[in-house]
Amino acid sequence: MTKKIYTILILMALIASIVSCRKTEAEILTPSNQMEYRLPSEQFLSIWNSMNTSYAMWDLEEKDWTSVKDKFLPEFLALDDSVKADYPITTKHLEELYTDILGDLTDHHSYFSVKNIWASDEDRSSFSISPGNIEIRKRDYYHDNHINSSYVSLCLEYEDYADEFNIHSWEDLTMVAWLKKLEAEGRASDIKYGSASYTMTIVSGLIEGNIPYIHISDFNLYDIMSFVEKGYNNPDLLVTYEAYESFKKNVLELEDVKGVIIDVRENRGGYLNDNFYLLGLLTDQPVQLGWSRHKCGLGRFDYSPWIPHTFSPGPEHRAIDGPVVIITDLYSSSMAEMSALIVKAMPNGCVIGERTFGAHGVIAGDFEATFSGTFGNTNGNHYAYLSTRIVKDINGNILEGIGVTPDIEMSYAQGTFKDGEDSWLSRAVDYIKTGK
Amino acid sequence: MMKKFSICLLMLSLCLVARAQWSVGIMAGYDYNSYSMAKGYAYDYRYGGMGGLEVTVPVQYNFLDWLGVRADISYVQKGHTMHRTGIYEGLWTNTRDHYLHIPLMVSFSFGGERVRGWVDAGGYVGGWLASWQKGIDEYPIGSEPDQEGPFKYYQDERGYHFDEKVEFLDKRDQRFDAGLTGLAGVGWKVTHLLELRLEGVCWYSLIDTASRMQDNVAPRYNTTWALRFGCAFHFGDGK
Lengths: 436, 239
Known about the structure:
The complex is a heterodimer. By secondary structure, chain A is α/β, with parallel strands linked by helices.
């Protein structure tokens, strides 16, 4: 009997020890609780942990994030020794380490700002890393900005900017010069342009009486419309709004619209809702550009299902039968690229220009919506600006970090942009007139 | 000495074989999976268990009247629910997991000829076969012009309803499963050959369902309780 009791006790102890083989809970802090640290290794682990749970694109990355910690933590621990010995850390060294860690991420929206709180007084105290900007420099068609329309109001107000961007008058913008040239030839009318709040420039016109054209430097239409509705009467705001209204009126009211040109060269994106007031004008049917998904849990690869990403017609719209052409370039990013994806998904759409930047991820303003995306503080010790959704196009291709490839490729190297010529815009007009 | 020991061992074996009996059965029943996962700072996520079906084919070999060894092939439905609270209430996902288990247990039985009870304990190995997800999620912003906030969609049932297979992702998912299992049962011999059985079983997984390729994530474990009913056919004297 005693033997049996011993046997049962031994068995129970054995079972208890096996049951305790389950892993203990991981300590997962919210990124906002990891903003303060004393040592470089603590800064590294804070950023590493925050990225581990908040970054939405781990499944697109070739790099193994766990190996990153294994590889770099010893280097940061070595820096700890320097700090403890009262030696400063050079910002260049810290920047090189973080560029190795973060500089090749696929999320082309991502942007990191890191403070070196151990820098000497003579050294710079912070640095930033933009993986997208690093990647595009490796493309064989890489070039500097050519249009700079976002800066036109700054240039017209401050000479330093005018010299830097070579914009001394509105006619120095390639599309304005082109429209004016066509106007002189009797081929363009209704030319309007304006730049509001230094952030958004709109140029519009009507080509050959039946092709509405608009260039939009950023997607802040929703803001501008809201301000006008609220009765703001800033002249710059009103003239910018008028340029948009003129385009809208031509699209909705012209008897015969041969085609439409939307020019998003160097457009860095903005509000997704702007779609309803631009491409949403041109269709009476919802357009599915593809699918998107978001993080759904704190695991590195916890994702929601792929959810159809569909854009509905705007509150005012008209079905355009003719071609809808969007003009993109290397710097067309985010909402500008989403617009290109929508146009690609339209039966009458055509993308002309260069392969775009490759920042298709959607950014939600609310961290708690998916407990992922942007973390940190722009004034704090580190800050990371990140996408919250991955997008794939209507054919199932994830184009993050790659960009939208145009149907008709153009290049700045081969294009003509002098004396009122803009060969990209001329190519768009040719396409609308000939269908090829 | 060695020769004597070998003879004794052989005689003991013959004795065991002489008393040995086989039984094979089929059982099915309801199970409930309890899902253990810390939600971390995703404070409005609520995880819960899920009921399912279990089917098992037990095969037992009795050395002695009261001692045997048992191996089953079991199909076990596991799963868990997740829903959100607060302003994101209305978003939910139910995940149904399908597993195959192969337990190996020592079986201790007791009782009379006609009615017997037993307690089995051991371990199991198994594998994740497939998963299915069903739920409501949020459409991306910018999908409708009159959207005023992210919650409008699922409050009025206009969220994205999904019901789809979950593709295995080796970076995220763990196919292998193993753990402890224990059960208690009672049987009634209807005939010399046929026995009706009722069993309560627990599967206690020791394998984190998240892949090891995910570092520093909350571990996720399944514990599944089942009540099943069925029959067994005996070859020999029966259990």
